[in-house]
Design a protein that fits this description.
It contains 18 helices and ten strands. With 465 residues, the protein is of the alpha/beta class.
Length: 465
């Protein structure tokens, strides 16, 4: 894993992204060189002439592929699957490029060249992905690890290492049992004791040891042996950090408060606040301007369906526990909570109107919250705000729930792009673990990634209810 602005990015994704940047840039110069092969321009002149068009083409195609989830590797990709995912991404990129060339005609390099460049770049990306994915299957990027512990936590860490993504990143050498812990892993995966941990790791060519012991009291943790491993250049990582790195979650069931207190992250500096507010204003104004037609059509459809109010206000809990009134397009009947008590949203909720069902799937119902962002009550990216009734309930049942209120809530967030729509306390726990990751590691880089993932959620209609 590579760490960029506190966010962990897999080695495969990093290599894939770097290769595809190179492929896209080279494709522009290769396509233009073929088209203008009879000209007498020098290499330097040709490079300068097409530098900005190459940058515009590269950024547009990378954005399109990101927006359609081509950098979220959840399953194995062969030639056919990669091609089927690449086609709509390039179609979206072509549409965006058409708009870019209209607004900035000096970047336009002609339809013939554009078609040639798209064919070359698509072929290059297709071949690059197949080669990278095949090499990952052969274990060229594989890391060998040992788990200290053999209980429920160690088993869960092992499952995460095996199944986090389809491309096998980790080879689990085995589990080292500790005294006083019930064994939950299969016997064949256990490593025999009696050998120093550092010697065992060296013999098996292990690069990292994951400490996955639930109860560390009673002296059952081999601290001296773990120190010897670290002094011998073997990385030692605890389970909480492993989950944070691999799943983008901070687990609340096995979390020690000291890990939060003494760990890195939780940037609340003036520079971060300034960048965050600037990002909120720029993105909100841009999306508000682009979405005006959609909001006008939505308003008309809501009114025509039942002649009820178009917008509705609802009390939510924001930063530092302060309440405010969130704005949304009305997607439910006026009597949705006639019983008097707040209710969790359900799959195929009967209270949802026909228009409401559509705007929820497309997330259009959230657009009026841009006004909350402009007022400073919300950020564009952050934990989703909950109603005071649910916050009081969840605070009593879930440890560290109030940590999510240390920053402003957002229109979209880590939990919204990584987890389905929450409708229970159990869902709230899962979403909190993503929210804690964001609160701890929030940065401008992570905000941009979440914004791109949000576009994917909107385009593909994921997670709505």
């Amino acid at each position: 894993m590579l760490r960029i602005s506190n966010h962990h990015v897999s080695k495969i994704i990093s290599i894939l992204f770097a290769v595809e940047v190179l492929v896209l840039i080279v494709s522009v110069y290769l396509g233009t060189s073929i088209r203008f092969r009879d000209t007498t321009d020098s290499f330097a002149a040709h490079f300068d002439r097409f530098f900005l068009p190459a940058c515009a083409f590269t950024m547009t195609m990378l954005f399109s592929m990101s927006a359609l989830g081509m950098y979220q590797l959840k399953y194995r990709e062969g030639f056919r699957n990669t091609l089927l995912r690449l086609m709509p991404a390039f179609a979206l990129g072509f549409g965006i490029l058409t708009l870019v060339f209209y607004l900035l005609p000096e970047l336009y390099f002609g339809r013939g060249i554009l078609g040639l460049v798209i064919v070359i770049s698509a072929t290059g990306i297709l071949l690059a992905r197949v080669l990278i994915f095949k090499s990952s299957e052969f274990g060229l990027l594989e890391s060998r690890i040992i788990f200290v512990g053999s209980g429920a936590l160690a088993k869960e860490c092992g499952q995460l290492a095996k199944h986090n993504i389809a491309y096998h990143k980790y080879h689990i050498v085995g589990y080292v049992p500790v005294s006083g812990e019930d064994t939950r892993v299969v016997a064949s995966a256990m490593l025999q004791g009696g050998e120093p941990l550092a010697a065992m790791a060296t013999r098996h060519n292990v690069g990292e040891i994951i400490v996955s012991v639930e109860n560390r009291r009673g002296g059952n943790l081999p601290i001296k042996e773990l120190l010897d491993c670290k002094l011998n250049g073997i990385k030692v990582t605890d389970a909480a950090t492993f989950f944070e790195r691999e799943a983008c979650q901070i687990r609340v069931d096995s979390l020690q408060p000291s890990w939060l207190v003494f760990g890195t992250g939780f940037d609340q500096s003036f520079l971060r606040a300034f960048c965050k507010r600037s990002f909120d204003l720029v993105v909100s104004l841009l999306i508000f301007t682009v979405s005006i037609p959609a909001m006008l059509i939505t308003s008309l459809c809501i009114y025509l369906e039942d002649k009820g109010p178009i917008l509705y206000k609802q009390e939510r809990v924001g930063k530092d526990g302060r309440t405010y009134m969130v704005l949304k397009f009305r997607s439910m009947r006026n009597d949705a909570e006639k019983a008097g008590n707040p209710q969790w949203a359900k799959s195929n909720d009967p209270r949802t109107t026909r228009v409401g069902n559509i705007i929820r799937k497309l997330r259009i119902d959230e657009l009026p919250q841009i006004l909350n962002v402009l007022k400073g009550e919300m950020s564009f990216v952050g934990p989703r705000p909950e109603r005071p009734f649910f916050v009081q309930q969840l605070n009593e049942q879930i440890p560290f729930y109030n940590v999510r209120h240390s920053i402003k809530p957002g229109i979209t967030g880590m939990a919204q792009v990584r987890y389905a729509y929450g409708a229970s306390v159990e869902d709230a726990v899962q979403k909190l673990q993503y929210d804690l990751y964001y609160v701890k590691n929030n940065s401008l880089f992570l905000d941009i990634l979440i914004l791109i993932d949000t576009l994917q959620v909107v385009l593909l209609g994921k997670g709505a209810r």
